Amino acid sequence: MPASAVAELAVRRPEMKVSLRQWKDSDFAPFAMMNADREVMRYFPSPLTREQSDSFAQCHRELIERQGWGLWAVDVDGAFAGFTGLAVPTFAAPFTPCVEIGWRLAREYWGQGIAYEAAQQALHHAFAELRLPEVVSFTARVNDRSRRLMERLGLVRDLHGDFMHPRIPEGHELCSHVLYRRQA
User: Is 15 exposed, middle or buried (0-12, 13-18, 19+ CB in 10 A)?
Assistant: First the structure.
């Protein structure tokens, strides 16, 4: 494990329990608050409305019910902290179709190793349970925090995979994306 990952895990209280689970109705309100937080949504085109946030959570709850995996709710000591998991991008790009790993946590859960631990659980599911040959992750070029997490998780930047996100207007500072890959 890289030293940076060990240092980040050391910040987290040792008794803290991090788990991935199905979405609950009680997750929707804190999820909407998280998605309305401009700092949490800094690397997305805009914060989400309550309706958009509820629709996102409901969609992923239904996907998990249907296929057994998806973007799970992250539970920290019984409290909703955000989401982490696996998804199939719904846009066309040179690297699709694929399965991506993604995450989003409420700010009060940042810097405690929670995203790392939750993502490790999702990667384990991807490779051990689903037997996927590869998982990708991508983010806006300027999102250094997510890029560092991708690297700590063992994803490697695909220098030929950078792309302009088709759902972000050309010229927008978030349009340019970097692609990372991890093979089983």
Answer: exposed
Q: d(Cα 75, Cα 34) in Å, to the nearest integer?
A: 14
**pLDDT tens-digit map of 112-150:** 999 999 999 999 999 999 999 999 999 999 999 999 999
Q: Phi, psi at residue 68, to the nearest 5°?
A: 85, 0
Residue by residue, what is the 3-state secondary structure of 50-113?
A: HHHHHHHHHHHHHHHHHHCCCEEEEEECCEEEEEEEEECCCCCCCCCCCCEEEEEECHHHCCCC
Give which of 20, 96, 39, 31 is closest to 57, Cα–Cα.
31
**pTM for the full model?**
0.90
CA 156 to chain centre: 16
Rounded CA separation 183/70 (Å): 19
Q: Which residue type sits at 146?
A: S
